């Protein structure tokens, strides 16, 4: 509802409220307690996580003790949840830990200790990532929220034992579980040729019942929200760590290079149903952070392949079939406006 619309008249609703409420739905009766104002928490907070950090210099290990969580939102019809926690020390995704599942509670006491081998000097570039889930035996587990800890060296008592309590932030998806894609970019201005070499991916999200995926990569050449061209790699069967080493080439004249971007989607091939999007990344002058930096580095060093790892993020478009095709497709780049 657009509250700024001049047609929105509060008096109209006040008159309706004075009428009999018989047969009317009352939305206030269906509010989830976890986001009610009376709980005293912001809507994007999903409880609190208590944990302890310490660094062991002798063993060169980060010690993480997950103590407990409090005031988690109810995810089950019974008014409770079955919570557990996944822990990563990013950017490493292979060394993952997970607590036990605690049944039917919104205030689980985990009291579990996990060790991450890491040099103390590397901690400044690491992030500790907690993802709190609700276990579901018959469908995909629900993500409750996440906690991210960085700047370890700025913590008050660290590297000594440091007790922390952080709000669990609401997120729509756990991007850390989607995986990463490595590819190189190379632009030859004289030939007007843009080459994207798909090298490999790692730790992709499992999309099949077998616990694996059948991934391929689809690259869309974009201009003003329209897809001009698309190419894709071969499909690698039954793997979460595919190796491609395949080059994809687009013809892009130098006068158009600033107009275009690349939407790169890692897909899971499905022989029976629709192919599913595992995750996406975007590179171009208007992309965010790494996607923009990678693109600018390619332009700064023409004719030189520049390779980087890119984390995959959730695709929030209209399904896998039309990925990258908002507003339709065309086959040619726009002619730049005359000066």
Automatic annotation (TrEMBL):
Ribosomal protein as UniProt keyword: no
A matching Pfam family: C2
Domain C2, residue spans: 45-168, 177-310
Compartments (UniProt record): Cytoplasmic vesicle, Secretory vesicle membrane
GO cellular component: dense core granule; exocytic vesicle; plasma membrane; transport vesicle membrane
rRNA-binding found in the keyword field: no
Domain of life: Eukaryota
Main subcellular location of this protein, as a coarse class: membrane
GO molecular function: calcium ion binding; calcium-dependent phospholipid binding; clathrin binding; phosphatidylserine binding; SNARE binding
Keywords assigned: Calcium, Cytoplasmic vesicle, Membrane, Metal-binding, Repeat, Transmembrane, Transmembrane helix
Protein family according to the UniProt entry: Belongs to the synaptotagmin family.
UniProt protein name: Synaptotagmin-9b
Species: Xyrichtys novacula (Pearly razorfish)
